[in-house]
Design a protein that fits this description.
The chain has 128 residues and is mainly alpha-helical. It is built from 4 helices and 2 strands; from the N terminus they run ββαααα. The chain is 80% helix and 5% strand. A two-stranded antiparallel sheet has the order 1-2.
Length: 128
Amino acid sequence: MEVRDGSAKNYFGNYETYLQAVEQEVDEGERQRNLAAVKPTGKAPQAAASKATAADYRAGQQDQRRADKELKNLEKRIAKLDQQKRELDQKLSSETNPKEAMRLHDELTTVTAEMAEAEERWLELNPF
Protein backbone atom coordinates (compact mmCIF):
# COMPACT_ATOMS: atom_id res chain seq x y z
CA MET A 1 0.00 0.00 0.00
CA GLU A 2 1.23 3.48 -0.86
CA VAL A 3 -0.09 6.72 0.58
CA ARG A 4 0.76 9.87 -1.37
CA ASP A 5 -0.92 13.05 -2.49
CA GLY A 6 -3.74 12.55 -0.02
CA SER A 7 -4.80 9.14 -1.33
CA ALA A 8 -3.99 5.49 -0.72
CA LYS A 9 -3.20 3.03 -3.47
CA ASN A 10 -3.03 -0.71 -2.95
CA TYR A 11 -0.38 -2.71 -4.82
CA PHE A 12 -0.96 -6.44 -4.93
CA GLY A 13 2.13 -8.61 -4.89
CA ASN A 14 5.53 -8.19 -3.31
CA TYR A 15 7.96 -5.30 -3.08
CA GLU A 16 9.33 -6.01 -6.56
CA THR A 17 5.84 -5.62 -8.02
CA TYR A 18 5.51 -2.27 -6.25
CA LEU A 19 8.87 -1.09 -7.60
CA GLN A 20 7.93 -2.10 -11.14
CA ALA A 21 4.65 -0.20 -10.88
CA VAL A 22 6.43 2.91 -9.58
CA GLU A 23 9.03 2.72 -12.36
CA GLN A 24 6.28 2.41 -14.92
CA GLU A 25 4.50 5.46 -13.47
CA VAL A 26 7.71 7.45 -13.58
CA ASP A 27 8.36 6.40 -17.16
CA GLU A 28 4.88 7.47 -18.18
CA GLY A 29 5.08 10.71 -16.26
CA GLU A 30 2.12 9.72 -14.10
CA ARG A 31 3.63 11.07 -10.93
CA GLN A 32 4.11 14.55 -12.36
CA ARG A 33 0.61 14.64 -13.83
CA ASN A 34 -0.97 13.38 -10.62
CA LEU A 35 1.01 15.85 -8.55
CA ALA A 36 -0.06 18.75 -10.78
CA ALA A 37 -3.71 17.64 -10.60
CA VAL A 38 -3.73 17.41 -6.79
CA LYS A 39 -1.87 20.64 -6.00
CA PRO A 40 -3.86 23.89 -5.82
CA THR A 41 -3.37 26.46 -8.57
CA GLY A 42 -1.32 28.65 -6.24
CA LYS A 43 1.60 26.29 -6.73
CA ALA A 44 1.31 26.07 -10.53
CA PRO A 45 3.24 29.28 -11.28
CA GLN A 46 6.03 28.07 -9.03
CA ALA A 47 6.12 24.74 -10.87
CA ALA A 48 6.15 26.54 -14.22
CA ALA A 49 8.96 28.78 -13.00
CA SER A 50 10.80 25.71 -11.78
CA LYS A 51 10.41 24.06 -15.20
CA ALA A 52 11.64 27.22 -16.91
CA THR A 53 14.63 27.35 -14.58
CA ALA A 54 15.41 23.70 -15.31
CA ALA A 55 15.14 24.34 -19.04
CA ASP A 56 17.45 27.34 -18.72
CA TYR A 57 19.90 25.22 -16.73
CA ARG A 58 19.87 22.47 -19.38
CA ALA A 59 20.34 25.03 -22.15
CA GLY A 60 23.24 26.55 -20.23
CA GLN A 61 24.78 23.11 -19.77
CA GLN A 62 24.44 22.38 -23.49
CA ASP A 63 26.07 25.70 -24.36
CA GLN A 64 28.90 24.93 -21.95
CA ARG A 65 29.45 21.48 -23.49
CA ARG A 66 29.50 23.02 -26.97
CA ALA A 67 32.04 25.62 -25.86
CA ASP A 68 34.20 22.94 -24.21
CA LYS A 69 34.07 20.83 -27.35
CA GLU A 70 34.98 23.80 -29.54
CA LEU A 71 37.82 24.66 -27.15
CA LYS A 72 39.26 21.14 -27.41
CA ASN A 73 38.94 21.19 -31.20
CA LEU A 74 40.68 24.57 -31.33
CA GLU A 75 43.53 23.27 -29.18
CA LYS A 76 44.01 20.35 -31.57
CA ARG A 77 43.85 22.67 -34.58
CA ILE A 78 46.35 25.10 -33.06
CA ALA A 79 48.77 22.24 -32.33
CA LYS A 80 48.40 20.96 -35.91
CA LEU A 81 48.94 24.44 -37.38
CA ASP A 82 51.94 24.99 -35.12
CA GLN A 83 53.51 21.75 -36.34
CA GLN A 84 52.77 22.70 -39.94
CA LYS A 85 54.32 26.13 -39.37
CA ARG A 86 57.52 24.60 -37.97
CA GLU A 87 57.79 22.25 -40.94
CA LEU A 88 57.30 25.12 -43.39
CA ASP A 89 59.91 27.23 -41.56
CA GLN A 90 62.39 24.39 -41.79
CA LYS A 91 61.69 23.81 -45.50
CA LEU A 92 61.88 27.54 -46.22
CA SER A 93 65.25 27.91 -44.51
CA SER A 94 66.78 25.15 -46.63
CA GLU A 95 65.06 25.98 -49.95
CA THR A 96 67.32 27.22 -52.77
CA ASN A 97 64.75 27.55 -55.57
CA PRO A 98 63.28 31.10 -55.45
CA LYS A 99 59.88 30.09 -56.85
CA GLU A 100 59.51 27.26 -54.35
CA ALA A 101 60.66 29.61 -51.58
CA MET A 102 57.91 32.09 -52.54
CA ARG A 103 55.30 29.32 -52.54
CA LEU A 104 56.47 28.13 -49.12
CA HIS A 105 56.43 31.73 -47.84
CA ASP A 106 52.84 32.21 -49.05
CA GLU A 107 51.79 28.95 -47.44
CA LEU A 108 53.54 29.94 -44.22
CA THR A 109 51.71 33.28 -44.23
CA THR A 110 48.37 31.50 -44.67
CA VAL A 111 49.10 29.03 -41.86
CA THR A 112 50.22 31.85 -39.56
CA ALA A 113 46.98 33.78 -40.22
CA GLU A 114 44.84 30.67 -39.58
CA MET A 115 46.75 30.03 -36.38
CA ALA A 116 46.21 33.62 -35.20
CA GLU A 117 42.45 33.31 -35.84
CA ALA A 118 42.27 30.01 -33.97
CA GLU A 119 44.23 31.44 -31.03
CA GLU A 120 41.96 34.49 -30.91
CA ARG A 121 38.86 32.29 -30.81
CA TRP A 122 40.50 30.13 -28.14
CA LEU A 123 41.07 33.22 -25.99
CA GLU A 124 37.39 34.18 -26.39
CA LEU A 125 36.21 30.76 -25.21
CA ASN A 126 38.78 30.03 -22.52
CA PRO A 127 37.44 30.83 -19.03
CA PHE A 128 40.44 32.12 -17.09
